[in-house]
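go over this chain:
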Amino acid sequence: MQFTAKIHAPDIDPRHRHPKIFEVFDGLESGEFMELSNDHDPRPLHYQLMIEREGMFTWEYLEQGPSMYRVAIGKK
């Protein structure tokens, strides 16, 4: 899997984190993927995507902790 963008969430100020992730996701073309890495499970982001971008994305864990979580987020 090739990633168009990679984001390491802890590098982004918490108040700007989700808006930045959504900005990157919205910039993807259909069929492209971004990799999100985080120091905890990004499940709240998954729920937010399910509400705000319903049916527009795929979500696949590549690594599930305990110290690092990596997710491939694809744009449909």
Notes: The mean pLDDT is 97.
